[in-house]
Amino acid sequence: MMPATPRSPEISVSDLLLYISCPRRVYFVSRGFELFPEINASRLERMLLKELSLNYPEIVSKCSLNADTLCKELEVALNQAYEDLPLMFPGDFTRIEGGALEEGSARARAKIPEIVANLLRGLEEYGKDTMLAALTPVKTEPFLSSEKLNLKGVPSKIVCFEDTNVPSILKPGNCPVQGVWASDRMHAASLALLLEAESGKEVPFAFVEYVSFGLLRKVVIRSSDRREVLKICRRVEKIKAGLMPEKTEEKFCTQCTFSEHCVSNSSLMSKFF
Ligand code: SF4
């Protein structure tokens, strides 16, 4: 008998994140609608800061760190990222809003002093070796997948911390006063589940890097996080199979790319009947 061909996972971690922002967005994206029609200043700022953060390990490993040298190193790295991004994402950079390049890079540059202050504080509090262990990738953007979970995803990094390989994700948005946002916890937990499926070893924690602030947070993966991820996976499966979720989310509606297509279920029904 021929061995069964492995099933390619249908759900990606980005679907789960989309679901957390609004279940209906999963529906639209799975039907070919574009989530980001073009690069605007805020998206460019986020892309630049993510790229910049990949340089933290190299910059932090340099011996003579003070605010001035750190600031200069980060500015050089940001300029480099500004030049490299269009080469790395050529498709995205064909559609860019007028003025987005200047405004996005100015916004990213304005974040450098706070990043410097927080990196220095982290180095003082935890020590260089600990910081470097948490920041330095043993793998960058590895593809992880699990047939059993019907899930695939790409963590920004895998780092080796306290002899354990764990995922680390780069987040360019706001940073909570303590810990991590609930959606980032789900993001980290989904990647921990994937890494466990690949390695066969428990992944008890993960890192979230709030790259606009130079802050690193460790997040312990709880059973309740795993349960929630599995629940969301099942809901996403149903949406991708054709279920249109109720329109419940209001918070993101005003800035949502799909707002003109997105009407309440009852209005949708009245269009057809
Ligand atoms: S318009 Fe609102 S409900 Fe519709 S997909 Fe966007 S965020 Fe969700």
TrEMBL record:
Keywords attached to this entry: Hydrolase, Iron, Iron-sulfur, Metal-binding, Nuclease
One Pfam family recorded for the sequence: Cas_Cas4
Alphabetized InterPro entries for the sequence: Cas4_exonuclease, Dna2/Cas4_DUF83, PDDEXK-like_dom_sf
Residues annotated as domain DUF83: 186-263
Gene3D superfamilies registered for this protein in UniProt: 3.90.320.10
PANTHER family for this protein: CRISPR-ASSOCIATED EXONUCLEASE CAS4, DNA REPLICATION ATP-DEPENDENT HELICASE_NUCLEASE DNA2
Protein name: DUF83 domain-containing protein
Species of origin: Methanosarcina acetivorans (strain ATCC 35395 / DSM 2834 / JCM 12185 / C2A)
Highest classification ranks of the organism: Archaea, Methanobacteriati, Methanobacteriota, Stenosarchaea group, Methanomicrobia
